[in-house]
Specification:
It contains seven helices and 15 strands. It is an alpha+beta fold. The chain has a domain of about 230 residues.
Length: about 350
């Protein structure tokens, strides 16, 4: 694929909002938007991540044979190497996004990436994806930033690409989000996460806080991210939720020409997330009630409670001692994988083996 000459086919976003990457701040014209909660920060509240702690765990795993014999200086050096590697990966991801943006935007200088580099591969895959969409859509703009306001709620977000869907009246748009991450699939196993937020639930001992459990995987996390962009974008673009895409530029398998299909990248707007927010009692035993949120419903929950959201359970649901399980696990349905359909309890079967006669 010849990438020496840029496409230069799209113009600036019409939102009037821009994102400064250096400090991840949003501006409306020259005015910095303050008091707004970004989509990145909202999603960051859903899972606990302490960079120093996790970097130490990673360094310990990489050097497990010698770790206990190392002095503090050597350990800190290994931890620093892990963090430096993470920063390098983040910077490379930013470079890939920027090269795609400059390739398509009319008013930006484009410098073609060197062949056989990761940025060249990322750009070629992005261009191929857009080309394969050419029968139904074209690039409207890149790096479209939004602000969302509803009462006291104020949020911001930025989509990588706004698509202009062809032959639609009134004009319809779509969203593409580029990813540069480890492999993920729509049917990957889902894991439980828990968040707490302001608001009293009479079922809980806590008087001012409530909590919610939810099951997701990396695909659902990215789907939620793009659905947030969809909600934020409605003020500016008539985005159709049936034209939302997540494209992992690092996934060799999905970009294999013999297996290539647009459905691999398309978000299912009807996909649901299993949640636990209330407790029910069945046959004298308490357990979490199984409920489902659509992606949009889950996003609205995050937007409404975003300011007070925090990862983790309330105190009364944590482990009382080392031997006991935390309450949220005791009454949580033990399901390894969740499909879009409701999972019904399986009938009990006798697994005991008959004793062999002597």
């Amino acid at each position: 694929m010849d990438l020496t000459v840029a496409a230069k086919c799209c113009v600036e976003s019409k939102t009037g909002i821009r994102l400064e990457e250096k400090d991840h701040s949003y501006y409306e014209g020259d005015t910095k938007l303050t008091g707004y909660l970004s989509s990145t920060r909202i999603l960051g509240k859903l899972s606990y991540f302490d960079e120093s702690k996790f970097a130490e765990l990673k360094a310990r795993k990489l050097h497990q044979k010698e770790w206990n014999s190392l002095d503090k200086k050597s350990k800190n050096e290994y931890i620093k190497n892990v963090i430096d590697e993470w920063n390098k990966i983040r910077d490379l991801g930013t470079q890939k996004h920027k090269i795609i943006e400059t390739y398509y935007m009319k008013n930006m200088e484009y410098v073609a990436p060197e062949p056989n580099t990761e940025t060249h591969t990322a750009l070629s895959r992005a261009v191929e994806f857009i080309d394969r969409l050419s029968d139904i859509a074209a690039v409207e703009t890149c790096e479209a930033a939004f602000k969302y306001e509803s009462g006291n709620i104020k949020c911001t977000g930025s989509a990588d690409v706004i698509l202009k869907i062809k032959n639609t009246t009134p004009q319809v748009y779509g969203i593409v989000d580029w990813k540069n991450t480890k492999l993920f699939r729509k049917d990957d196993n889902e894991t439980w996460c828990w968040v707490n937020f302001d608001g009293h639930n009479p079922q809980f001992m806590h008087k001012t806080k409530s909590q919610l459990g939810f099951r997701w995987n990396k695909y659902l996390r990215y789907s939620v991210q793009v659905m947030l962009y969809y909600i934020f974008s409605q003020k500016y673009y008539n985005v159709d939720k049936n034209h939302l895409y997540v494209v992992n530029l690092s996934d060799d398998d999905q970009h294999d020409k013999s297996k290539y299909t647009l459905s691999n990248f398309k978000i299912d707007p009807n996909r649901k997330i299993m949640v636990h927010k209330t407790i029910e009692e069945i046959n004298g035993k308490k357990r979490w009630k199984v409920e489902y949120y659509t992606l949009e419903e889950f996003c609205m929950f995050l937007i409404i409670n975003g300011t007070s959201l925090s990862s983790g359970c309330l105190p009364e649901f944590k482990k009382p001692n080392r031997k006991d399980k935390p309450l949220h696990q005791v009454i949580t349905h033990q399901i390894r994988h969740v499909s879009n359909k409701r999972v019904l309890p399986k009938a009990k079967t006798d697994t005991k083996k008959a004793k062999m006669e002597k």
